[in-house]
Prior knowledge:
The chain is α/β, with parallel strands linked by helices. It has helices spanning about 35-40, 70-85, 95-105, 130-145, 145-160, 165-170, 200, 210-215, 230-240, 265-279; strands at about 1-10, 10-20, 25, 45-50, 60, 90-95, 110-115, 215-225, 245-250. Helix 2 (about 70-85) crosses helix 3 and helix 4 (about 130-145) packs antiparallel against helix 5.
Amino acid sequence: METHVLETDGAAITYDVSGEGRPLMMIGQPMDASGFTALRAQFPDRKVITYDPRGIGRSTRSDGRTDNTPQTQAADVHAVIQAVGGPVDLFASSGGAVTALELVAAYPGDVLTLVAHEPPLIDVLPDAAAARKARDAFMDAYQAKGQGAGMAAFLHMSSHQGEYTDEYFAQPLPDPAQFGMPSEDDGKRDDPLLGTASLAITDYQLRVQDLIAAPARIVLAVGEETGDAFTARTARHTATLLGQEAVVFPSHHGGFMGGEFGYAGKPEEFAVKLREVLG
Length: 279
């Protein structure tokens, strides 16, 4: 695997390239390239490209900003694709799937097939106002009490099945100890998931007509274990807006991962499905 650093507008983007063959790029947000170790290993016959988003992992930023906007992220990914030689097939997960949808809309020649896995787009939901309130609650918990409280509230929000109702909001936020996390506040407020940096991702407005007109084949993907939780619902509603149905993949929201972050999915089975969808 070769590692490169690419200077873009206000950032130095670190990306990795391994193998030969038809290019397959894998992106996440706020996850960096380390989250794709297990999935990368399943594609020894492809040129696989991963990267760290600006300001995360090994990629630095000098633009004076802390927000992770899909437009800026898409421009960075576009620059990497130009550097490695596109177009590429693209697997994108979570906030990376939002970046990828902007990429296809803004740079329609970059991507052959996009598999967008559970993009967390609030405004595609029928209960968007309530979902935004639930999102804001875990951010408020983080700002008030720190990492443990914020992550516990995030897990409460992200694992909830179905729409966010009055009954949901009547529940108290969980104790971090319930998830084996410390309750003490370490004083930090720079977490890219729990802080304000990723507001632009969940609040992104989908460019439906641009996506429909783009030459890329777009596939929305949803994990079979995600059920009717937030990102499963956003995936299905995004698919509906694009005139399709979401394709069911093995495992959960991080189902392509091994044990990199402690909650292993089924990367081998996931890769089989991804190969099938990519054709």
